[in-house]
């Protein structure tokens, strides 16, 4: 393995250009040496002097590439990840890791046999609001948690202009696209649920994929977890609603890192990951025996943590930032909701 770790990036759309490549540039342990894309002008803006590569096979066959970072359409993730592992490369694959849990089990076993790292880009474990939720749950302000609700809503009444985003097939639909995030967060907090129910459906005229979902996850009494998504929510609803025996926490808005990256900020810039004060969530509880209701400072978002942990896994053999068993459980739940089983 080379030092720094040489990265071949597959795809240079939203995820590749804005959500992955800035962290590779900022982290001294990585160096992007190949990017598969047709967007030569955009690539030149981010990596001056780096010529685009036109085929994924070129990356797989390059002996100087240590890590293949997959930021391509959902339906391609499994095949590309398998090809990279078979070529002896470490892998970071965007979520959803695969369309089925069986596919991810196969990739996990292949990576294990070849002594390679397989990581999944579940970056929203390091969102500012989710980090704050974890901090509250580690404390005593809420008491025993009774109800946890997370929503991932958007206002997108028209089908996506990118054909692959609206095409039925493996890994298609909002349950795979956005549900993979909030379901991963729930598993991170509470583990695998005892039971799952839910449904997906199409809300928008002209859409050919399920663009809304509801899920209920059952854990040991009294905890109940509800997860949902709609692309027809114009007036924002709370992103997180937590109720415990001692208090409640309600949080609007979403982590600011994606917007900052798309606006040209870089990880490490002053204010990166810091949300505005007006977006703080409200905590209503008792502190020192006295009622308290007021804003809670939101922790900074730290997507860089995923890349720091991935570097430690590849270079030093540290545990994966996101356990693959968690992602397998996520895909099993998604499959059960999709099939109604």
UniProtKB/TrEMBL annotation:
Q: Which domain of life is it from?
A: Bacteria
Keywords associated with the record: Oxidoreductase
InterPro entries for the chain = Gfo/Idh/MocA-like_OxRdtase_N (IPR000683), Gfo/Idh/MocA_oxidoreduct (IPR051317), GFO_IDH_MocA-like_dom (IPR055170), NAD(P)-bd_dom_sf (IPR036291)
Give every Gfo/Idh/MocA-like oxidoreductase N-terminal domain span: 5-120
**SUPFAM superfamilies in the record:** Glyceraldehyde-3-phosphate dehydrogenase-like, C-terminal domain (SSF55347), NAD(P)-binding Rossmann-fold domains (SSF51735)
Q: Name one GO molecular function term.
A: nucleotide binding
Identify the residues that the record assigns to the GFO/IDH/MocA-like oxidoreductase domain, covering every copy: 130-249
Similarity-based family? Belongs to the Gfo/Idh/MocA family.
The UniProt entry, under PANTHER family, shows: CONSERVED EXPRESSED OXIDOREDUCTASE (EUROFUNG), CONSERVED EXPRESSED OXIDOREDUCTASE (EUROFUNG)-RELATED
Protein's name in the database: Putative dehydrogenase
Give the species: Neolewinella aquimaris
Kindly list the organism's lineage.
Bacteria, Pseudomonadati, Bacteroidota, Saprospiria, Saprospirales
């Amino acid at each position: 393995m080379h030092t720094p770790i040489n990265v071949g990036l597959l795809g240079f759309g939203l995820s590749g250009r804005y959500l992955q490549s800035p962290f590779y540039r900022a982290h001294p342990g990585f160096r992007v040496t190949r990017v598969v894309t047709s967007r030569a002008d955009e690539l030149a803006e981010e990596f001056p002097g780096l010529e685009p590569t036109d085929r994924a096979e070129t990356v797989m066959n390059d002996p100087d590439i240590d890590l293949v970072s997959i930021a391509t359409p959902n339906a391609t993730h499994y095949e590309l990840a398998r090809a990279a592992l078979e070529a002896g490369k470490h892998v970071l694959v965007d979520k959803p890791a695969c369309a089925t849990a069986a596919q991810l089990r196969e990739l996990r076993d292949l990576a294990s046999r070849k002594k390679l790292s397989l990581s999944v880009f579940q970056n929203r474990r390091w969102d500012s609001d989710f980090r704050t939720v974890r901090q509250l749950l580690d404390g005593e302000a809420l008491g025993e948690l009774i109800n946890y609700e997370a929503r991932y809503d958007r206002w997108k009444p028209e089908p996506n202009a990118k054909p692959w985003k609206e095409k039925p097939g493996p890994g298609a639909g909002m349950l795979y696209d956005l549900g993979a995030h909030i379901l991963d967060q729930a598993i991170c907090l509470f583990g695998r649920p005892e039971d799952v129910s839910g449904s997906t459906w199409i809300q928008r005229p002209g859409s050919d994929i399920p663009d809304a979902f509801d899920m209920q996850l059952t854990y040991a009494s009294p905890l109940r977890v509800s997860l949902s998504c709609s692309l027809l929510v114009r007036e924002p609803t709370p992103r997180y609603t937590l109720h415990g025996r001692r208090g409640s926490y309600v949080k609007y808005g979403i982590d600011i890192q994606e917007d900052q990256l798309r606006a040209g900020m870089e990880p490490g810039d002053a204010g990166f990951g810091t949300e505005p004060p007006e977006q703080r969530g409200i905590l209503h509880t008792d502190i020192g025996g006295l009622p308290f209701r007021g804003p809670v400072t939101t922790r900074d978002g730290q997507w860089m943590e995923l890349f720091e942990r991935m570097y430690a896994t590849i270079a030093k053999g540290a545990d994966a930032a996101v356990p693959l068993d968690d992602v397998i459980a996520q895909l099993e739940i998604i499959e059960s909701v999709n099939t109604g089983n």
